[in-house]
Amino acid sequence: MWERLSASQRKLLSWIGLLAAVGIGLMLIQAPQLNRPDMGTSPSQPAPAPPDYEISYAAQLEASLAKVLAEAVGVGGVDVFVTLEGSSRLVIAESVTLEDRGGETRQTRNPVILRAGSSAGETPLILEQYAPKILGVLIVAEGAENPHTRYKILKAAQTVLQLPAHKIEVLAKSKGKR
């Protein structure tokens, strides 16, 4: 079929193909931005997650794990350090409106806003909240110089955090420092 076309028709089809490929590429690049939950919201709307949520989540995780591990037989003082991947993720409820304009359908997404009184302001309706993924854990404990105790600490952290053993490191705490 390509052989039947004249040189100018081939050139025109090549340009149309190139423009179609560029257009599809641009749509693919912009596609994730269309599904952002904050699209169409006013700038005065508060951010859905407080900026220090990840810090408090990690601190809470570290403190509770250290407290539990310190209670185990043969384990003294424990320090825990948790590394998180990225940040938390929120799924915000959206209302979707479809408008038909001359054969073209336009989709508009707006977050569902809750108003909790006259002075409280507006907050988005949060459907789900996902905690950041734990990348690794470092545990420094008194008593970890004993291989059996070190193994017990590793297995306990592995069970509590649902992490594979290669993402958890257990070290012995030096006796001279506290």
Structure commentary:
This protein is of the alpha+beta class. Among the domains are: 2-34; 53-90 and 129-172, 2-Layer Sandwich (GMP Synthetase, Chain A, domain 3), CATH 3.30.300. 34% of the residues lie in helices and 30% in strands. The chain is built from 3 helices and 9 strands. It has helices at residues 7-34, 53-70, 147-161, and strands spanning 78-85, 89-92, 94-101, 104-111, 113-115, 122-124, 126-130, 133-141, 168-172. Helix 3 links the parallel strand 8 (133-141) and strand 9. The longest helix is centred in the first third of the chain and has 28 residues, at 7-34. It is elongated. The N and C termini lie far apart (81 Å). The model is unreliable at 31-51 (pLDDT under 50).
Write the layout of secondary structure elements.
Elements: H1 7-34, H2 53-70, E1 78-85, E2 89-92, E3 94-101, E4 104-111, E5 113-115, E6 122-124, E7 126-130, E8 133-141, H3 147-161, E9 168-172
Parallel strand pairs: 8-9
Antiparallel strand pairs: 1-8, 2-7, 3-4, 5-6
Quick rundown:
The chain is α+β, with helices and mostly antiparallel strands. It is 34% helix and 30% strand.
Which key phrases capture this entry?
178 residues, GMP Synthetase, Chain A, domain 3, three-stranded mixed β-sheet, 3 helices, elongated
CATH level 3 topology of the domain at 53-90 and 129-172: GMP Synthetase, Chain A, domain 3
Number of strands: 9
Strand content is: 25-35%
Helix count, DSSP H or I runs of 4 or more residues: 3
The low-confidence parts are 31-51
What is the name of the CATH class of the domain at 53-90 and 129-172?
A: Alpha Beta
Helix content: 25-40%
Mean pLDDT: 78
Name of the CATH superfamily of the domain at 53-90 and 129-172: ANL, C-terminal domain
- Mind telling me which CATH architecture of the domain at 53-90 and 129-172 this is? 2-Layer Sandwich
Q: How far apart lie the N and C ends?
A: 81 Å
Radius of gyration: 28 Å
Strand-pairing-aware structural class: alpha+beta
Q: What would you call the shape?
A: elongated
Biggest β-sheet, characterized? Answer: 3 strands, mixed
The main sheet orders its strands as 1-8-9
Order of helices and strands: HHEEEEEEEEHE
